[in-house]
Every structure is written in C-alpha cells, then in structure tokens.
Amino acid sequence: MIMHGYVVRRLSLGLAQIVLVTALVFALTEALPGDAAVVLAGDAPDPGRVARLRHELGLTGSAAERYTGWLLGVLRGDLGTSMIAGRPVAAFIAESGPPTAQLAAITLLLLVPLAVAGGVAAAVRPGRALDRVISGTSVALYAVPEFALAIVLGAVFALRLGWLPPTAIGAGGDLLADPAVLVLPVLVLLARPICSISRLVRGGMIDALGSGYAAHARRLGLAPRRVRWAHALPNAVTPAVQQLARTTDWLLGGVITVEAVFVVPGLGSALTGAVAARDVPVILALALLFAATTVTVNLLADIAAYRLAPRSDGAG
Amino acid sequence: MIRVDALTAAAGGRTLVGGVTFALPAGQVLALVGPSGSGKTTIGRALLREHAPGVVLSGTVEVTGRVGYLPQHPASVLNPVRRVGGVLREIARQAARTTSAAGAAGTSGAGRRETPGRPVAHRPWLRSAGARRTREIAESLVVTALGQAALPGPAELARRFPHQLSGGQQQRLVLAQALLRSPSVIVADEPTTGQDPVTKHQITRLLRLLANQGMAVVLLTHDFDVVEEIADRIMVLGDGRVAEHGPAGEVLARPRHPHTRRLLAARPPARPDTGDVRTRPATARSWSAPAPDGPDRLAVAGLTARHRSAPVISDVSLRLPAGHCLAVLGRSGDGKTTLARCIAGLHRPAAGTVLLDGRPLAPALVRRSRAELARVQYVFQDAHASFDPHRPVAAQVSRTAVRLRGLGAGEAGREALALLDRLGLPAATTARRPGALSGGELRRAALARALLAAPDVLICDEITAGLDTVTQASVLDLLDELRRDGLALLLISHDMGVATRLADRVGVLSGGRLEPLDPSTDVTPRHPPSGGPAARRLRTSGSDAHAPGTHHKEDTS
Questions:
Q1: If DSSP codes are grouped into helix, strand and coil, which group holds residue B193?
Q2: Start and end of every ABC transmembrane type-1 domain (chain A) (predicted)?
Q3: Best CA proximity match to B401, nearest among B451, B362, B327
Q4: Residue A219: which of B48, B87, B309 has the nearest Cβ?
Q5: Which of A9, A308, B199, B249 is deepest in the core (most CB within 10 A)?
Q6: Which CATH number fits domain A96-269+300-313: 3.40.50.10860, 1.10.3720.10, 1.10.10.10, 1.10.260.40?
C-alpha cells in the first residue's frame, strides 16, 4: 500500500522532470547559432531561400509557440517530422533504437554476473592477493576514459591483429546478425561499470561478511558458500543496485563516444547528427526518450533497493 | 561435556579473563555471574572457539558435540533482509541432510563405509528421494524447533522479517535456530535481558528443560532470579577472575567472597507477582485524567499507531508532569516501543497528538526544531545498534552536547567524560569503539549521550536490561536524582522491579491499550519534585513494597 502511493508520487514527479528536461533542451538548441533552414540551405545560403525554408519548416513562430506546439503533438502521440530527412521522428528512433538497446542489453547481461563475482571474490579475503589484483585492476581500468580505451582496443585488435572488425559499418540496424562487431564496443562499455560496481559489491560484502548474522550463520553449520551468496550478498548489493541504475541509464542513452568510434548507428549517433543539423524535433524526441529512461530506471532501482532493505519502512 | 582449563584472554595488554578453569557435565546448568566487562562473554565465545578481533586466547577448551549459541543481542545475529522461514528451513535442511545421511549409513550396514554427515544430495542416484526426504525432515524439524522455543508455527512466522518480530520473539527465534542442530551444549549470553516476565520465565524454564534432556547449559547473566531458578552451579567473576565457584544453593545462601556479597546485596527489590500482566484488573480510571500535580510536561492524546496496516496501539492517552516517572509495562510485541517511538517522532502515528508543555510536537522528527529534539531524548533498547561502530564511544556521546546545546567540542568532551565516569565508564573504556565495550557499558554510554542534551523528557527503553545488579542500582539512582530535579521520565520496561522502584505510576500496554496496572498502584504522586527520598516509598497493594532496593537508595542519598 505504501509502495503503491510511493510509485504514483514518483511517477508524477518524473513526468514533471521529463517536461522540464525537454524544455531546457529546447532552450539550448534555440541558443545555438543557426537553425535547420541554414543547414539545409547549404554552403552558400541565399537569404531568400533560407527564409522560404524557415517558412516551410514552421520555424517562423516564437520559441514558446513552437515548444508548446511540439508538446501538444507529443500528448497526441505525434513526435513530429524530421526537418532534415523529412521522415517521421518515430521511424527515426525505431531505426536507431535497436543497436543501442542490443549493446546495452549484452553489456548488462555480462556486467551483472562479472561485477558481482569480482566484488565477492575480492571481499572474501580483503587485503590478500586476489583482492589486491582485482581492486588494483579495477581502479586502474576505471581511470581510462572510454574514448581512449575504444581507440586503443580498436587499434590493437582490429587494425593490427585484424581479429575483429574495427567498426559496425555494414552491419545495418541488427548488430546481432554479426556478433563480431559487438565485441569491441561491449568490452569498452563494460570496462568502467564493472570497476565501479564490483568495488561497491566488495565494500558491501566486507561489511556483510563481518557482521553478526554472517558469523551466526556459519555457527549454525551453513556452508561458507551459502553464507556468502545467500546471506551476505543480499545485504551487500543495495548500493550496487543504485549504481547499476545509473549505468543502465548511461547505456540506454547511447554512449556517444563509443558509438562514434565504432560507427554504431545507435541513439548516440542519432543525437550527434541531429544536433549538428539543428533537427529540433529529433533532438527533442531523443531528450524525451533519455529523460523517460532515466526516470524509469531510477524508480525501478529504488523499488529494488527498498525490497532489498525491508527495514527502511515507508519509502517516502 | 565441557572442560575448560586455565583459559586466559588478553587484548592490547588488558587481561579480560585470567586463568579460568571449570568443567560441566551433561544435564547441568552453570551460571557465570559478574558485572559487565568481567569477561563473561569472552568465556562464552571461547566455548564457541571464537574471540573478538584483537583478543588472544590461551589455555584449553574441550567441548563434546555441537554448541548452540544465544547471543546477547538477538537482532544482531538475524539477517535483516532474509525472511524468518527461509533461514530456518535452510538450517534445518543442512541438519536434516546430515541426519538422513547418518541414517542411511546406519541401515546400509557396517559393510559400507560412509562419511558421516555427508549430504545425501551429493549421491545423484539418491537425489530425488533423498531431497524429498530431506525436505520433509526439515519441515518437521522447523515445526518442532519453533514449538520448543514457544514461537507460533511457520504459517504465521515464516513470511516475516526479523525486524517485524519483538525482541522476545527474536530471542526465541535464535533459540529455535540453535535447537535445529540438536546441540549438546548451549551457551546463553544474557538470554533474558530485556524480556518481559512471561517470556523470561519461558526461556528460563526452557533452558532448564533442555538441561534435563541432557544438554549442558552455560548461562551468562546478571539476573539472580534466573540463576536462582535454574542454575546447578554458579561461578562468580570479577575482572576476569573467578571470585567464587560452587553449587548454586551454597553460593546464594552463604556467599564467601565479598564480591559475591556485593552483587547479591544490590539485587533489585523482590518483584511483585507479574506472572501475567494481562490478568491484572483494569480500572475505569482513565489515563487522560488530569495529573493532579502541576502542568503536564508531556501529554499524549488519542494516539493510534500502525505497522503497515496492522494496528499496534490504539487511542492511548497519558500525562506526565515534570519530575514524574511513568513506567509502561507489557509483553513483547504489545506496542511499548511503538508508543515510545511515536512520542520521540520516530514513528508516524495514524492519529493523535503529542504535546510538550501544551504545544503539539510534529509527528515526524525532521519537522521538530533542534530545541525540541534536545528536550525529548530517547535511550534505545539496542544500545549496540544505536552507536556508529567506527567512532570512539566518547566522541559520539559528546557530539550530542555540541549539536543540541551548541557547546564547543572541548567543553562537550569534558562534560561527556565526567558524566560517563559517573556512570562507571572510565575514559580508557570510552576512548574505544563500541565493539570493544560490553552490552551493559554501551547501554550506560547511550544513557549518557541522551542526558548530555539536557532533556526535559527522557524515554528509556529497557534501560536496565543487561546491567549487573550494582550498575543497575547506580543507573536507577541517577535517573531518580534527575527526576527529582524535574526530569519527566517515561520508562519502557518488562521489569516490574525497576518500575516499582522508580515510577510514580505504572501502566500496562496490553492489546494496544494503556491501562493502569492496579488502582492502588496508580497512586497520586506522593511527592513534589522537591520531596525527600523518604517520601518515595511506593504504597502498592502488595505486601512486598518495602523492598531491599529502596533501602539501598536511601543509603546513597
């Protein structure tokens, strides 16, 4: 019952946040020099042609009018039409969504077990060799930015050794049809989240394994493995769940650097393209999508955390 | 069953236990008695082959069979995120596997060698039948153990989380977990601490019963009532050394060591019969009747509170003038702590108001001003959980004065040390982290922390639980002195002895309603705040009101 009211409250707050984000993004695109008419007019813009294009694209009204128009359209379920490609924005997203979603799903599927296993393995004997190796590696790896890792991995495994394709060009929308193109992007996407989440799991596990209930479970004759996975771990993962939400959000937003380096035709690429072309309907639709993802994923994580910590009575 | 020879424990140059030797045959109950910090818990844990970090043990400890352990704080050994039933079944399955494996080995004759205790499930050809059998055995083991521990059946309990049980139920749950493994030795560390008389009696009787069935029971306690009831032998400890060791009757009747005599002399007053507080007749007199004596410092009107949707207390009203003490008794799970938490702003009541000097207090703590926070202070039942494990105790205690009274760090520190010292906690002890202090020591530190806020209303949840008799008397004396200086005290307790000693009025919370314990106990306060100690004797209807504890107090004042 408490949960129910909490979800409703959070969802309505989330809705307000989404509207605010799109308004902010719209204001920022307004502040950018030039607009879609200038982009379409090409290299030698003739003022008369630009004005005509503006009129055709509906860029003549005031900013407030155009934003409200877009918002009303969204409420009717109409995301508008791309100014550059002339196609409906919904089709645009349906095309660039799947590659990003596939990358994110595969990354998450590998991330959760690996990060949890790494964190638990390090926590079993904190300060010993295995912990030092895992902790040292994860701190070092975390310090490497995505773009650097992407370029280095691409240079070594694709260009020098030729084991893997350097980019996803030619794979089209369905990356799963050609799994080899996924390997390098997924590796890059995994690198930093695996470090942060395994560190959090390790910290939680060290506390949980040192707790009275873990000691008591061992006293009651339960196997160390059971104690580790069934008794300590549920207490240890709460902070990691929150971090995982942030990671999921980040992945579903289409990681721009990774998509750019490996030429993945995903949401991140779509966003950079749309900003360059001042394609406002596409930018707004993507902002809407990313904001909605953020709100949903974080709400889910909070519900999961609440379930994992039954003592935190009342979620408000 | 147990043989301990020259057991010594030291930590950082401090000797915790110095050369303790004893043996305990099956079927006997040994009580280890001594003030907090005298090494009882260290000895108990040594029987489990455990020790606190930094403690070095030497000497020999021999124990036959498995050891079941009842720790001092049941909440600390129950996994907060696992449901009760799941954990019980898991322990039972483990126990059942070893049992059925041993059974299989027994019936298969001597020709086949089986590793005893090897899980059946590891032999694939037996898996399905074995697993089913294991599950059946486990289910019945759980039912039996819950029954033995006087808990309701799995149907009612299994889906709950430990925090949804009362302190008494948690203790019995830990006992049920231990019984699942059919132990031959039970080490019980203050098992009756903070339990209501009925539960206490149940646990005590149960431990005796287990001893009669052939288990050796080691009982670490302060409570001479329990010792008197079930102990066969008593070992009195002082500063980690054995002061006296002998048959229970002899030690209690003719204590030879002055230390034992001091502990016995400080026993709280003999308790009126509180076998079942529910059967006490309720009277028509309402708790909301105006207190006869001055304005109310604290007033509660029509308070109703729920946990989720389950009602816990309903329509509770009470009035508490400055300089008075109200004790609220009741069984575990009857909502005493919930009432206290509502007053302190830790639990949002469904209805009703809490007034401080006639002004309503916000139901949520975060909405109360800092002054209001300082004025209503709370000493929690679980002292361990109420301290940050990573910072020295003294630093945490003095923080109250900095935060709630705006003192400088230096001044707050001096005040804290003085108060802690007064409560019998020297600076060397409180400079350590909470983990290094005993339960009784932490409880006093928690009291000091609350008092440093200079509160007008002090809520004490089981303040004397886990304290030895001498310390208990000194804590009660301090509270009494503060009460006479105008502190309004709300005492949550199971302990009738404590209630009659300190309280002006005693209420019983039963079935969610607060009722006067007894018309003649609910006497009008016989003393204004400035009244002398001689006026403080309680006129209860029972004949046992003039108890030894009262004399002790007069001596000290």
A1: coil
A2: 97-301
A3: B451
A4: B48
A5: B199
A6: 1.10.3720.10
